[in-house]
């Protein structure tokens, strides 16, 4: 009965978003209220349940997502992203250009949210295309595969960051495991797969032909790489500190403070404000304008995360999640594969990777204590499933199609297949890690 109730709730969410075209946040609210009534929560308690769910998920995420968006926007607007891309292409040469673009997508994609990264980096692909005369799709897929991998697997991106506290995972450990899974995944879905796409002809629209900043106006190479990678370096060092430092120091209050993800991002943002902004002549008003635009970019994601939190809380307060966990406990399937499969189904139905990841997390979170599944790997399994089979109900599908000026058929051949490879290879990487650790 619990599974049937959850299926009905998800179907209602699908109909509201894809059928009626309701805003995802409003769709989550309507589905949450309907689910609460269906699950038998007393009517007078429904508003409190929804408020608790929204507040609970945003309380730990709002600062991280907003500050992360500001950081990524400054990296892009300052020219640091362009510097990273240009440097990698100079070092790798034309023979390994797809590998350079993959590395660009990975490095720049770490601090940038997916849609922002797509809009800002795809014109760089076209710039390379005009210089090298190589096919646009062949050049673009490696970069986009790397962007997808960072979006689905690695903090500070919305879905992994939201899943980590839900599963009781560790930010540093998840990041470390995520990088181990991400590297082979983006290689297979990027340069190796793109080699099969050289025959896809594409003439990008003139609208998207980039206007690069002059080299003299770009930040330095060391500054660009170091500042962009600083949050990842700090999170990694804070995780290693537990093992490298004496216990008394590792458990000190100041070490705990500096290990917090919110503090890490605030420190990185403060440094970037100076190194990429003030030191290079930007006024504080311009920097604040960039940060204001970044908040606008992330507002929709914040609302979707909040709505998913409301639905999750309904399932928790109604007891349905416990019933579901007990039902799923008896299914003879690896919990990591089960989580991946649930995320995949929701992704195919709804289109949004973030919504798929968050909704799947609310369903499978109660399973972890019963199965003993590694919570860090569960985050990655759901991340892999949330990237599967992007098609016509995914905004990324249409962004790719229009930017590269492709037919729907060629979009399926390249974009959809690339995203599916990322999801499948990502799951395989998670399962390999599960056997090792």
List the helices and strands and how they pair.
Elements: H1 2-19, H2 24-39, H3 46-77, H4 80-92, H5 97-109, H6 114-132, H7 136-153, H8 158-167, H9 171-194, H10 221-244, H11 247-250, H12 253-259, H13 261-277, H14 284-318, H15 320-329, H16 335-350, H17 353-364, H18 367-371, H19 375-385, H20 395-404, H21 408-436
Helix pairs in contact: 1-2, 1-15, 2-14, 3-8, 3-13, 3-14, 4-5, 4-10, 5-6, 5-7, 6-7, 7-9, 7-19, 7-21, 8-17, 8-19, 9-10, 9-19, 9-21, 10-13, 14-17, 16-17, 16-19, 17-19, 19-21
Question: Summed up, what is this model?
Answer:
With 437 residues, the protein is an all-alpha fold. The protein is built from 21 helices and no strands. α1 crosses α15, α5 runs antiparallel to α6 and α7 (136-153) crosses α21.
Describe the structure.
This protein has 437 residues and is mainly alpha-helical. It has one domain. The protein has helices at residues 2-19, 24-39, 46-77, 80-92, 97-109, 114-132, 136-153, 158-167, 171-194, 221-244, 247-250, 253-259, 261-277, 284-318, 320-329, 335-350, 353-364, 367-371, 375-385, 395-404, 408-436. The longest helix is centred in the C-terminal third of the chain and has 35 residues, at 284-318. The radius of gyration is 22 Å and the shape is globular. The mean pLDDT is 82. One of its GO terms (molecular function) is gluconate transmembrane transporter activity. InterPro entries: Glcn_transporter.
Descriptive key words:
437 residues, mainly alpha, 0% strand
């Amino acid at each position: 009965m619990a599974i049937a109730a959850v299926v009905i709730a998800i179907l209602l969410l699908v109909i509201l978003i894809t059928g009626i075209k309701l805003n995802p946040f409003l769709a989550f609210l309507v589905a949450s209220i309907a689910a609460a009534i269906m699950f038998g929560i007393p009517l007078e308690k429904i508003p409190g349940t929804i408020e608790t769910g929204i507040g609970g998920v945003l309380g730990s995420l709002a600062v991280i997502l907003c500050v992360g968006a500001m950081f990524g926007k400054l990296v892009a607007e300052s020219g640091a992203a362009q510097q990273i891309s240009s440097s990698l292409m100079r070092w790798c040469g034309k023979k390994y250009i797809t590998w350079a673009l993959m590395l660009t997508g990975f490095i720049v994609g770490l601090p940038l949210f997916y849609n922002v990264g797509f809009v800002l980096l795809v014109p760089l692909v076209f710039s390379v295309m005009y210089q090298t005369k190589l096919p646009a799709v062949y050049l673009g897929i490696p970069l986009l595969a790397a962007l997808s991998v960072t979006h689905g697997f690695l903090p500070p991106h919305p879905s992994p960051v939201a899943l980590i506290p839900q599963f009781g995972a560790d930010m540093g450990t998840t990041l470390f495991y995520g990088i181990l899974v991400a590297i082979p995944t983006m290689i297979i879905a990027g340069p190796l797969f793109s080699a099969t796409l050289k025959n896809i002809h594409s003439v990008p629209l003139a609208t998207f032909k980039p206007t690069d900043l002059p080299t003299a106006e770009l930040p330095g190479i060391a500054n660009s790489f170091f500042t962009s990678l600083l949050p990842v370096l700090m999170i990694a060092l804070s995780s290693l500190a537990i093992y490298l430092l004496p216990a008394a120091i590792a458990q000190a209050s100041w070490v705990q403070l500096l290990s917090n993800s919110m503090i890490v991002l605030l420190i990185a943002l403060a440094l970037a404000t100076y190194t990429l902004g003030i030191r290079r002549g930007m006024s504080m008003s311009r920097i604040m304008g960039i940060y204001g635009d970044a908040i606008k970019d992330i507002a929709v994601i914040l609302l979707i995360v909040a709505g998913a939190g409301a639905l999750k809380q309904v399932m928790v307060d109604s007891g349905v999640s416990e019933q579901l966990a007990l039902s799923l406990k008896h299914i003879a399937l690896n919990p990591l594969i089960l989580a991946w499969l649930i995320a995949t189904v929701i992704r195919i139905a709804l289109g949004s990777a973030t919504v798929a990841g968050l909704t799947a997390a609310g369903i499978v979170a109660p399973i972890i204590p019963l199965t003993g599944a590694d919570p860090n790997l569960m985050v990655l399994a759901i991340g892999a499933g949330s990237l599967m089979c992007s098609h016509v109900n995914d905004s990324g599908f249409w962004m790719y199609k229009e930017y590269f000026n492709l037919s729907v058929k060629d979009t399926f051949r390249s974009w959809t297949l690339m995203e599916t490879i990322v999801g499948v290879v990502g799951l395989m990487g998670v399962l390999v890690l599960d056997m090792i650790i």
